[in-house]
Amino acid sequence: MTLGCTRAVGLQGIAGFVVDVEVDVSSGLPAFTIGGSPDRSCAQAPGRVKAAAANSGHAIPNRRVTVNLSPASMPKLGSGFDLAIGVAALVACGKIAPEVVSDVVHIGELALDGAVRPVVGVLPLVLAAARAGVGHVVVPIANAPEARLIRDVQIHPVAHLSELVARYAELRQRRVPTPVAEPPMVHRDPPQTPDLVDVIGQTDARHALEVAAAGGHHLYLVGPPGTGKTMLAERLPGLLPELDDQQAMEVSAVASVLGRLGPSSSLQRRPPFVAPHHSASLAALLGGGSTRVLPGAITQAHHGVLFMDEGPEFGGSVIQGLRQPLESGQVVVARASGAFTFPCRFQLVIAANPCPCGLGFGKGTKCRCSALQQRHYRNRLKGPVLDRIDIQVFVPAPSRATLVLSPGETSAAVAARVAVARTRQLERWGRTEWRLNAHVPGPLFRAGRYRLPRDVTRALDRALDRGQLTLRGYDRCLKLAWTLSDLSGVDRPTADEIGSALCLRQPDALAA
User: Least packed by Cβ within 10 Å: which of 32, 185, 192, 383?
Assistant: First the structure.
């Protein structure tokens, strides 16, 4: 037989797709070519495969070897196709029975001595194989703990190509394959999150943080340096509940693609916290890359928190690039090779100083910035991006009197109330695609069963008529009011919740 076939999995963004690997060994001038849109790393597989096969005692004949990776229209990225190409080539040479590998997915990079090296992105690769109905997946032994997170497929770890060939020979003879000694499973303790009790004073900001956690709202904190803005943002993940199975799988898949999941035996259950530096580029924030398109910071913060400290210091294009992802919950990175879609349903927290020197706001301050400098600095966050941020609060400098105050509530106490509020939202939106008030389209709150009476929304209507709110801001206040009612335990918002929502969204006060 001169034709060998098996299967592999390719990766596009963070989604995998099954690839049919076909190898033909025929007479002619010696050559080893790969077709099917391989990238540079994948196109270099012939050298690795030939050396690995020879050093494993199963040399590939010096003939014309043609490899086809189907579907040919999809780009094949990385060295994870090495093992599948090597197995298909050995099938074509008659050294492996074709029936034992035809419907098996092989993932792994081959070393020159035949060792099977780990690759990144194994979790979404195995998940794609399972969804395609594949029953058996061969992975590098170092990737086995990560691959076993997918329960719907049987994982076969392998350390060396010769070992795999021997196991296939045993299967052909209907013998039980020799078991493989796997590395011990690693059980990671959940990371310790900072506690809210460390924040002194700041009653209004703490309340805003609780509302943001309860409804999934974006948060803008502005105030002088040293007032606790960063401390508040870092404690937001500690108020959020653990991720469910679907969310944990999505977050873990992103970490796997970036090679950050590690030899873990469990999915990531805690919401991620990502804090890029203000010098980050647009590609670093949204995703991209020259040779391989990778998820950016907003995707790394999927189902978690994206914290942008010193928000006005970020580039203008970087800040404006958040507009579409904030609305849709996904970002599309377009390149010449295709369009890559990444999920990015995150909570945005922006912290900013009132002016370049940070000492503005209030009488008696030592601010040396001119009015023009202050206006220019604050205008970097004005417009559509700031209008999409639900909660906007001022964090004042604490006085000496706050040092003698009793400590505030712990994160556990606040998280308990957040969990109750989120349960109420889940009961309300359980039959829809949304889970939190912040994710629900605004028009739904202005019509039908969720429309509030005129006497309840009177203050909100007046602010809209006066131009103090845009229609988007109007909808954001309605969402905040529903979250406040969930925290209070009432069925529907009243005029008090509407007034509190307006107080939590005070752009005019921040610009004063």
Answer: 192
Whose tokens are 């924040």? That residue is 199
Q: What is the distance between the alpha carbons of residues 340 and 293, in angstroms, rounded to a whole number?
A: 8
CB atoms within 10 A of CB 420: 13
Rounded to an integer, what distance in angstroms lies between the CA atom of residue 38 and that of residue 46? 12
Contact 83, 101 (CB under 8 A): no
Residue 510: C-alpha distances to residues 53, 122, 232, 278, 382 (Å): 67, 47, 18, 22, 11
Instruction: Name the helix (H) or strand (E) containing 274.
Output: strand 273-274
C-alpha span between 185 and 204 (Å, rounded): 45
Q: pTM for the whole thing?
A: 0.89
pLDDT digits over 164-210, tens only?
999 988 877 665 455 555 555 555 566 678 899 988 888 899 999 99
> Whole-angstrom Cα distance, residue 470 to residue 49?
61
Kindly provide the residue ranges of all beta strands, DSSP E only, lying in 46-170, ordered along the sequence.
64-70, 104-106, 109-110, 116-117, 136-140, 154-158
> Which residue's structure tokens are 């999809």?
74
- Owner of token pair 């990079």: 109
